[in-house]
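Colleagues,

Please find the record for the four-part complex below.
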Amino acid sequence: MPGSRLNADLWITEYITPYDVYHHGVTRVLAYARTEFQEMQIVECGTYGKALVLDGKWQSCTGDEFLYHEPLVHPACVNHGHPERVLVLGGGEGATVREALKWRTVKRVVMVDIDGQVVEACRQHLPEMHQGAFEDPRTELVIGDALDCLDDSAGEWDVIVSDLSDPIEEGPSFKLFTREYFAKCKRALKPGGYLVVQAGPTSPVEMAMHVRLVNTLGAVFGNVASYSSYVPTYAAPWGYALASDNPIDHRPDPARIDALLADQTTSQFRMFDGITLLGMLQTPKHIREAIQAETEVYTLVAPPKFFGKGVATEKGE
Amino acid sequence: MPGSRLNADLWITEYITPYDVYHHGVTRVLAYARTEFQEMQIVECGTYGKALVLDGKWQSCTGDEFLYHEPLVHPACVNHGHPERVLVLGGGEGATVREALKWRTVKRVVMVDIDGQVVEACRQHLPEMHQGAFEDPRTELVIGDALDCLDDSAGEWDVIVSDLSDPIEEGPSFKLFTREYFAKCKRALKPGGYLVVQAGPTSPVEMAMHVRLVNTLGAVFGNVASYSSYVPTYAAPWGYALASDNPIDHRPDPARIDALLADQTTSQFRMFDGITLLGMLQTPKHIREAIQAETEVYTLVAPPKFFGKGVATEKGE
Amino acid sequence: MPGSRLNADLWITEYITPYDVYHHGVTRVLAYARTEFQEMQIVECGTYGKALVLDGKWQSCTGDEFLYHEPLVHPACVNHGHPERVLVLGGGEGATVREALKWRTVKRVVMVDIDGQVVEACRQHLPEMHQGAFEDPRTELVIGDALDCLDDSAGEWDVIVSDLSDPIEEGPSFKLFTREYFAKCKRALKPGGYLVVQAGPTSPVEMAMHVRLVNTLGAVFGNVASYSSYVPTYAAPWGYALASDNPIDHRPDPARIDALLADQTTSQFRMFDGITLLGMLQTPKHIREAIQAETEVYTLVAPPKFFGKGVATEKGE
Amino acid sequence: MPGSRLNADLWITEYITPYDVYHHGVTRVLAYARTEFQEMQIVECGTYGKALVLDGKWQSCTGDEFLYHEPLVHPACVNHGHPERVLVLGGGEGATVREALKWRTVKRVVMVDIDGQVVEACRQHLPEMHQGAFEDPRTELVIGDALDCLDDSAGEWDVIVSDLSDPIEEGPSFKLFTREYFAKCKRALKPGGYLVVQAGPTSPVEMAMHVRLVNTLGAVFGNVASYSSYVPTYAAPWGYALASDNPIDHRPDPARIDALLADQTTSQFRMFDGITLLGMLQTPKHIREAIQAETEVYTLVAPPKFFGKGVATEKGE
């Protein structure tokens, strides 16, 4: 009999746009909870391993999270050169901290996540993600508000990694994608420190938020770089924005980077090295042009509103 | 009322894997036919414009096809430097020919597609794709078999572009992804000419075919490069393999490339330029390592069998 | 490999509720048009044969339309006993007329449908539906507005069959499910004639419209009966309302009905006979109770708004 | 913005046929387990309340289970007239026992279910289903094999209710839909007792199993009746087969039934009463004719194989 086999009865649905929907088949539900802040699921998927899903939005899965987390952390660290103190905002699964800890220069990683129940569930069910990062003596986990934490620190961090959920309207994080928030981040950095922000999809029809985020960071920092990484389960290339008052090297020499990584890290990378970094930093023409054409910035008065891939947190209509 | 709006009643379903399914909403059916070779639909989609669908498989759509067609054609042409004669195998929509014609050096583009009915429908319904390419006096359209055409030509082409459907079992094209076929392509090229092959997805769980194709080309040509481009509607980064007995420059200088493009092309590119090319050629570490580890090649005896995203042509089980 | 096979790439989606969605796989598109009034598709489906789809809503398919059309026409005709003049409002596929013509007593069937292009496409592509009904000398097809037609006739019909699309907001038919419209129908009937209305789903969560329609008819006619028929492709039992100032026999003797049918019809029924009629008229307790509890009626000021299973006609938000 | 809203991120998929798929949106996962026998989920749905799902197959949900369980139990009890001892085979949710206990004549209900973990989860999470039935002093719950239980009893039961999962190949229950099994049931009944079997969908394209089950029961018992009930979430009318060597009254007088129910039951029925029973027993013509035409019976050598709506238990391909 002809046909395409489907092997799941339970599906997580991602509403990419009102005309584009992506289904991931679930083979096992490992954890489910309604926390104080959001709906959480940890599931086992057919193709991509285990996944964390918050408010119906796919956060990351063990099968391709390295394509998200390595690009999130290492370009900032490489540009810094010898990061010692790293602040991770969000990052529930622990994979962002895991990456930061690969730098032998790193003495302290503080991770601030608002939802302790999610962090605890990830700790228990997603060891492939954190790989013991929470137990590392250099790690400090703070359950609390990223904004409070930033207000409490000044000139303290070499690298800040903003690994927050997309700014869905009515969701908890949309304020954290604004000029005001980025100014707080800058104050919390040591002079010349680096901030990196997960900055939304960069597919042609979805890149408006990414472009404006890059422009918003440009209103706060002297230098900004946009780069992307393929993350198949997001159904889009995923964008990052790296910002600093120190220079960002857009044309790094791969051999020099590889020597730096060999010297200062554990070298346990799956996708990241000098060649990969050089490639990522060559932002394609259409994205470069869109960034150049952008004039608006996100502020608390006019924050971003991401198309909701998930429905669970939408309220009040 | 909360929720995610969906705006379509009719959906094209892509079976990416048995656990991952992608739906694209159709707003209008422009053409439908069962041709001698396949089932064809030309549809209007909500987000990405008009699309060609063959045997249930998404071929390309006007909203992001530039992310597929510009990387398909120009790296080969740039490496050649002054392409005059280009052979396009497949390429029904005419967008591949359109890109080749952007080179002022090009004197002749022959496109060989097996399905005249599909080409005619694209000509009529997808002017955004071909943009008059079929009417260009340098273009010759041949309705016929790519293999016959290759057998008839020797030492004739500067660049050959293999823009064929994925090698679904029982589909028409799986023989055209083998060592024997690539040897025919090499014979048809002028000495030192360049062959580029659309070479399947490069997401971690799907890249086995890409990796083996690169290895298969390496058994025939002296030099091979793997590179990828983000194509959102494919739900995966898409891979290409560029092959030649002449060198392939993996670290081109963007300024030199831009000067070459300014000199020899119409410069009407949306995503392609020197920076983009430099970026694409920096294959990420995990793909590089998979290619280095590959030992098998595809042959007529052991051809590729792609997971069928479409069901329409599958027979005989 | 385990799994459930799916055999289609193209799917018609029915949004039953915001939490219940039904997909029917399409194997061939037979006709597609945007008419003056609606979007039309005639498709071939994997399981249930050929189907007519209007504005994304499944109208009927050859595999189970007998479960819709036989119950639509014959209870009214049986209660009348010797119908001679039948008016069909809507009924594009011709299957409603086909059923009426099975009555040898019938001398004239007038069918009024607003969309000539849909009727013509059905005539061409759905011969299984109309079975030549449009060619019967007793049939007259009027392309026009049901309301105009009712205004033009008084005391003329033995049976009126209201076979209109569901009253989706902004759709063409919501006015035709109101007290005012039913009063026009009554005026167009001969004294004691019978009106039957397709009257929406009768599943527990969806039956509100059905219940209010029955009550609305009760405000116009002396007697009303609610009955339902299983139509699998609607994913719900489907309701009808039969109304007249003459009596409706809720407990007919099957043998007597079979004798009547043998005498006055061609007897070519697939699901309908005396036993089936007796069964259909025994409305289950929960529907009976809901009807008894209903107090509101639909009027032009407060017409029904059906949950849109289709999106194509929705406008203006 | 136009469109159809969907309000869920997590969906249970029912593969009705390879071309017909039904999705039910899940708003909350209440319980999830892989038991010794099957995969179990108890979920909260948007439209139909809470549901039990086994091996990916929708078992019942609080919003329309009364349309399944009342017709399952009461026609057998009414035909018996004064049931005292009832055996329920399967019936994990406890709703079948709940219905049997509505008969004041009933002194003992034994429920035999193979999966104690499922029963316990239903007891905890689905009080709307069992409504305390497990605590009733007349109820005895046996965790074990239905076949063993039947072998242990002879001439013991007034009514046996076979409320087993569909006979999916490789599933646990396909042997329990055979002539040999029904003969065991007959032996376990008191002389003239009644057996009722949930007997699969009765939609035209899916009714083959139902028809053959009715015929199989006819090979064992003197009298068999087929009847159906609308269960919207099954996307099909659902069939039952009632069998006995005593008569089955196909044309019961509603008033007499209502008097019997008033006398001998708690009268707490949502859909069942005399009129409903009369209606259900009037099997539509096309089903009657299919039953008359059937010649085969299911045996242990040739058991039924139901199209798998779920994939979880399928093995060994």
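Residues 258 and 274 of chain B are 5 Å apart (CA to CA).

Comments are welcome before we finalize the supplementary table.
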